[in-house]
């Protein structure tokens, strides 16, 4: 039971920040009555005080509780930090997803392969096109020659030819075919 005149309030996260200098530092500030306690979770597991690469500093003043975690080693890609403020009236949490400044080897390999694939694909398409050009040109020329022959046949008058056979002579008339 709360002392008389003390108004109880659930924990609320009022401020959070992260900065990267020599180490990564993330801070959480909670407010509540009674004063909230602050816990950190790293990758879902509770923070162990003597874990290498991690250091936590915390301070309380009245209804305020502030806590900062320092990561002295670069975080793994996808690693998460959870800052939790808790008092008997409630709990408030903040999850921070960390991303490494360096891209992973898998991503680099994928990008190299993608660039090479696009480059070699472009070369292959170019070579195929260059091989098809003579065939395309030949096809176009044949179409033009047929058109020209058809136009000449329409303009010229019907011709008669004499064909001699052993039995006699006969005349053959030819007419243009459209």
UniProtKB/TrEMBL annotation:
InterPro entries in the cross-refs: Ig-like_dom, Ig-like_dom_sf, Ig-like_fold, SIGLEC
SUPFAM superfamilies in the cross-refs: Immunoglobulin (SSF48726)
Domain (Ig-like): residue spans on this chain: 4-95
Membrane topology of the entry: Single-pass membrane protein
Compartments reported by the entry: Membrane
Domain of life: Eukaryota
Database matches in PROSITE patterns: IG_LIKE
Compositional bias annotation for Polar residues: 158-178
Keyword annotations of the record: Membrane, Transmembrane, Transmembrane helix
Region annotation (Disordered) ranges: 150-178
TM regions (residue ranges): 118-137
Protein name: SIGLEC family-like protein 1
The organism of origin for this protein: Odocoileus virginianus (White-tailed deer)
């Amino acid at each position: 039971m709360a002392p008389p005149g003390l108004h109880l309030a659930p924990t609320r996260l009022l401020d959070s920040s992260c900065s990267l200098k020599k180490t990564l530092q993330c801070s959480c500030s909670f407010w509540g009555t009674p004063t909230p306690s602050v816990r950190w979770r790293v990758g879902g597991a509770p923070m162990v005080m003597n874990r290498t690469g991690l250091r936590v500093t915390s301070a309380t003043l009245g209804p305020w509780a502030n806590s900062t975690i320092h990561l002295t080693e670069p975080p793994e890609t996808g690693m998460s930090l959870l800052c939790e403020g808790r008092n008997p009236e409630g709990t408030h949490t903040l999850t921070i997803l960390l991303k490494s400044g360096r891209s992973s080897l898998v991503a680099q390999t994928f990008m190299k392969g993608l660039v090479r694939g696009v480059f070699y694909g472009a070369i292959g398409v170019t070579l195929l096109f260059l091989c098809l050009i003579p065939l395309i040109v030949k096809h176009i020329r044949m179409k033009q020659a047929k058109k020209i022959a058809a136009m000449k046949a329409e303009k010229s008058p019907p011709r008669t030819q004499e064909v001699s056979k052993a039995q006699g002579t006969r005349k053959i008339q030819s007419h243009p075919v459209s």
